[in-house]
Design brief:
Elements lengths: L9 H8 L3 H8 L8 H13 L6 H8 L4 E6 L5 H16 L3 E6 L4 H13 L4 E4 L7 H17 L4 E4 L9 E5 L1 H13 L6 E5 L4 H16 L9 E3 L4 H15 L9 E4 L2 H14 L8 E6 L12 E4 L2 H17 L7 E4 L2 E3 L8
Parallel strand pairs: 1-2, 1-3, 3-4, 4-5, 5-11, 6-7, 6-8, 8-9, 9-10
Antiparallel strand pairs: 10-12
Length: 352
């Protein structure tokens, strides 16, 4: 005996009550129909008895919309993107929509396949965070393919967080350059003048944060030293490897030692903290530290880490608001929505 029962249809209910499928459909969907209250009540009782559930697929075909949205994220394990996906899903659900989340593993080559998969499922709109390749040339070529695809799919979409490229569309992100300057300011204003920066130089966001770091130094009359910029990826392992170079800069054979670091991602920061702990380098005693994102990944750090905060709920709300507007107003000109980060001060920066 099968553990699954055949789904009850409108036709089944119509046959039992001796009325037309149209009468049953109109009644169960609370639409006007010339039918006695007695017959309407019979239809509802049979539907309840047979555990009838309306078909979302059939309703979608009739309305020509699925009440589903697609979200492409580059790394669902990254706390920032995990938190963003959660916030987007919760907000979308409040509007009666289902969010389908796909993960590219930060592989730009996977972006097109995943977008095509979402389009084939007839999502009503897309939220797109492109992947970053560790090889800039590969990333540029793959991003071009993604932009070509997006420009031709005739689906409303919004680029989120990673908004570089030639595609003219709605874009929502935080001001990375301002954030990089803000984090550096937090160190300079406490007396630090020899400051390193750990960033993902293969990404536009990372390079923008480094520009902010450089601008802050220039504003404070501190000469920019390219050797103090250390490349990493957005993973804990990348931060761990970068910390080995930071340790050398803290104890240089010649020249002044660094006294502070701005790390341009919380995941990098976790790697830096772990390596520092292994090497006996204290924060902030030996090295002050400012992070970027202010995600929950920092919650258990001791001391608490000063961080440039990107408020995820604000990013999610803005991205969905822009997407919903685009879905209703397809001819409106696209807009950029650049949000401001802010600094959360904790105990990882000492005055010198």
């Amino acid at each position: 005996m099968s553990g699954f029962e055949r789904r009850t249809t409108l036709k089944d209910i119509a046959a039992e009550v001796g009325l037309s499928v149209t009468a049953v459909s109109q009644t169960l969907n609370n639409r006007p129909i010339r039918l006695s209250e007695e017959n309407k009540q019979r239809i509802r009782e049979v539907a309840k008895k047979r555990n009838y559930r309306a078909s979302a697929v059939a309703r979608s075909l009739a309305l020509r919309q699925t009440n589903t949205l697609g979200l492409l994220v580059p790394d669902i394990e990254n706390p920032f993107f995990a938190s963003l996906a959660k916030s987007l899903e919760e907000t979308a659900r409040k509007t009666g929509r289902v969010l389908i989340i796909v993960n590219s593993n930060d592989d730009p080559a996977a972006d097109c396949n995943l977008i095509n998969m979402l389009v084939e499922r007839e999502v009503d709109g897309l939220l797109v965070i492109p992947g970053n390749s560790p090889h800039q040339g590969d990333s540029a070529a793959a991003s071009s393919d993604l932009f070509d695809l997006l420009s031709g799919i005739h689906k409303p979409f919004v680029l989120v967080d990673r908004i570089s490229g030639p595609l003219i569309c709605d874009r929502v992100a935080f001001d990375n350059e301002r954030g990089g300057a803000m984090g550096t300011d937090a160190l300079v204003e406490r007396g630090h003048r020899h400051i390193a920066c750990v960033a993902n130089l293969a990404t536009v966001n990372g390079r923008q944060r480094v520009r902010g770091y450089r601008d802050s130094l220039n504003r404070h009359g501190i000469e920019f030293d390219e050797s103090l910029v250390i490349g990493s990826d957005y993973h804990e392992s990348g931060g761990y490897e970068a910390a080995a170079q930071l340790a050398e800069l803290l104890r240089p054979k010649d020249g002044a030692p660094i006294t502070g670091v701005i790390s341009c991602s919380d995941m990098m920061t976790l790697g830096i903290i772990n390596r520092f702990r292994e090497d006996g380098i204290s924060v902030p005693g030996d090295c002050s530290l400012v992070s970027y994102d202010n995600s929950r990944a920092l919650n258990f750090s001791n001391p608490g880490i000063t961080a440039v905060a990107q408020e995820v709920p604000s990013l999610a709300d803005t991205a969905l608001r822009v997407l919903f507007h685009r879905m209703e107003n397809v001819e409106d000109p696209p807009e950029d929505h650049i949000l401001m980060p802010h600094l959360v001060e904790r105990d990882s920066v000492r005055s010198i």
